[in-house]
Design goal:
The chain is about 5% helix and about 45% strand. The chain is mostly beta strands and about 80 residues long. The chain has a single domain, classed as Thrombin, subunit H, CATH 2.40.10. A hairpin with a 4-residue loop joins strand 4 and strand 5. It is globular.
Length: about 80
C-alpha cells in the first residue's frame, strides 16, 4: 500500500501491506512473524511481518533494505509459516 510514514519522516524499509484474503485485525495478527518476498524486475527484497496496523487487516512489514518507490502497489508473496 505505502511506506510507514510519520509527520516529518518516511521509513522506506517498513511498508504497509494489505492482503486480499485478510479483512480484520484478528486475521492479520495471525500473520505476525511470517516472511514476505517482494520480487522486482532486477532485485528481490525479503521482509518479515512485524505487526498489524489498524482494524482492517493491514500489516506492517519490515524489509532488510529500503524498498524502491516503484514497488508500491505491486504484489508480494507470503513465503513461510512461523
Amino acid at each position: 500500500m505505502n511506506y510507514r510514514i510519520g509527520i516529518r519522516t518516511q521509513k522506506s524499509d517498513e511498508c504497509l501491506i494489505q492482503f486480499t484474503s485478510v479483512t480484520n485485525r484478528a486475521e492479520s495478527g495471525q500473520l505476525v512473524g511470517r516472511k514476505v518476498v517482494l520480487k522486482g524486475a532486477k532485485t528481490k527484497h525479503a521482509g518479515k511481518i512485524v505487526g498489524s496496523h489498524g482494524k482492517n487487516g493491514v500489516v506492517i512489514v519490515r524489509f532488510k533494505k529500503g524498498v524502491p518507490g516503484q514497488a508500491i502497489g505491486t504484489s508480494v508473496e507470503l513465503v513461510a509459516a512461523r
